[in-house]
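User: AGRG3 protein. Structure?
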Amino acid sequence: LLQSGQPSCLAGLKTLLLNVSRAVTRDVLITFSPTAGPSRLNTTEKGKAGKIHLPREIFRSLSSQTVRVVVTVLNIQQLGMFKEVNQTGQVLDNTVVGITVGEGSISGLRDPVQLTFAHGELPRGLTPQCVFWEPSKGQAGAWSSSGCVTQPGDKGTACSCDHLTFFTLLLNPALDGSTAKALMAVATAGCGVAMAFSIFTMAFCIFVRCRFRFEEPVRTNLGLHVNLVGSLLLLNLAFLLNSGLSGRTHPRACGVLGGLTHYCLLCCFTWTALEGCQLYLLFVKVLGIYIHHYLAKLCLVGWGFPVLVVGVAGAIGSYGEHSIQTTDHQVIAHLCWITSKHLLVHYITNCGYFGLIFLFNMAVFGVVTQKSCSLQGTGAVQGYRKPWKVALVAAGLFCLLGATWALAFLTYGISSAAVLYLFTILNSLQGIFIFIWLVVLYYPKTKEATGSLSYTRHDKTTTASQ
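Assistant: Predicted structure:
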């Protein structure tokens, strides 16, 4: 940048060069400001300038008698540098501070380098994090916090790092204390209501299945719904037990509770996928297909496959205490869940697994909708059972059991608080939605109107359950 001679580049760069003796007996203190640049610290220094504290350990480890200390303050908005791909946080004052001592790299310091980034009251919903630029991370470099400790304060944030490089203070979107407590209250109350309606829904499905003589596809559908609602009931129960007992249990008991919660969540996802498979078999593949002990085989997959996943995750010690923190690093809740050391397990078994299920259900929903519209266009539907009602059934199943969980992928970013409220409310009320949906869908007015759709194909009458 200095050799280019471009005024636009030089406008965003301010540098301080110091020659410091190897036999220094005091720590080196430097101030930096986005507007005034770096300078040696004066004892009468006042204002909102940041401070750099270089320990004596740095200079005593060098071989030469005199070393050059270079402190560079960069305005990355003017320079167009240090841009991370898909970056959600914002750099404080667009300021990056680079520190170099001597000609080699310095890392692994026992007495860390301390940087204090001065700032006023931070906007609500943002949490500060001390980071440095790591060129080898990602495709074109990214921010990293390895080796740095963040200590937030009222007038500034102190960063203690064990190496020298380019540092900054990243303001990441996060929940404040009041929002987090409100979300926990909504989730707890919603789970209690959802459990009650889940019991009503299971009782209703069992009553309808036993009271009326449905055809086999309808009975299979009702059995699927019972198992799905049962998984939701267990998930809500596990969450209530988790929020009530975590933080006061033995580490081993917390690990078991975390594994149980993960198992219930995976069961819910798996039964959602099986509902999508049932739609595919009924409306896309073959209508009226018969599989021996079909529901029993679905139960083996729906309840058995999560056991294998949780067993493997538990074998590597993935479960334990997980804390939820606010912007000021105050712990508001302890949960028995996947620990922070095994976040890869969470990304693969939860985010990745549900992502595949969501894409599959979305594809099935699109195909079913297209098929229903084509049937309506050909006039192949008899009676009042219109194809749009079949599409409505699929849309209700897809939205209630897929779209609400998919909102979790939108909870990263500046607007994550609003999406979190929507995600928490919709999933907490999921049991109520399913209960109303099934009552409207399956409650028969007459024996002939038992929830089946009849239409003629190739001069044959085929019955497909809703």
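The chain has eleven helices and 17 strands. The CA atoms of residues 246 and 314 lie 18 Å apart.
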